[in-house]
Amino acid sequence: MLRSLFTLTNLLLSTAVALPSGIIRSSHLSGGLSPRGSCATQAADATNDGDQGGAGVQLSNGGSGTRSYFVYENSCDSIPLKYVTVDAGKSKFVALPALFQGRIVRGTDANLDGQPHLLGTWLEIGLDGTGKGYGDVSLIRGCDGAVTLATDDGTGVSTGFDDPSVLADAPDGVFELGSDGSKVIEATEGLLSVVVDAVRDYLASKLGYDKAYIDDYHGNPVICSSNERFKATFY
Fold first, then answer.
1. Which segment of the chain is annotated as a signal peptide (predicted)?
2. Which residues 6+ apart lie within 8 Å of 162 measured at CB?
3. Among 33, 105, 204, 219, which is most buried by a count of CB atoms within 10 Å?
4. Does residue 2 lie within any of the structural domains?
5. What domain range includes position 151?
6. Longest C-alpha distance within the chain, in Å?
């Protein structure tokens, strides 16, 4: 049985599973252990992080308006570690701490209200402590649009998708409302990792299983960066 990079079933929320790479998988359903031992108590503005050559992600806004992006550590769902706002067509580098394991998502000021906001496309990143980073795009917790992820180590390896029709063509029966009132494709798995067939099957018909995690039982769209650096575009 395959699992997305940071997924455990709800039965394992209080445990962690070590992968050969040293990555610790956490849960799309929240819970588990914070990889660095504690959660942030206040989100940091990453506007001035700058690229100092270390681990991190160059975030590009491929949309038509200014958007904000939020960095969450695994199991720290209420308060982001960092956030950054990026103008349309621009990019900013967000540095990641050693052993970071978590996700980057689109969001609004609502993400700073101290409550979990899980619904949406997850860009998942994990650093294993040996200089390598791993990443994937996951739609298990929902889909609020396309994201592509590429390594920034010269290999050109990439994953994710840039097709806007995945969201635009979705039937009404698979939508929920996001925190900003927008339509978001709902999660493909509920409690105990039970698959919501209608949602999973729609996404599979559009993307297959090679570009993003659609459930925990198919595909392995994880890429590895040899220098812990990535480039990502949110569309």
1. 1-18
2. 62, 146, 148, 233, 235
3. 105
4. no
5. 10-35+43-234
6. 45
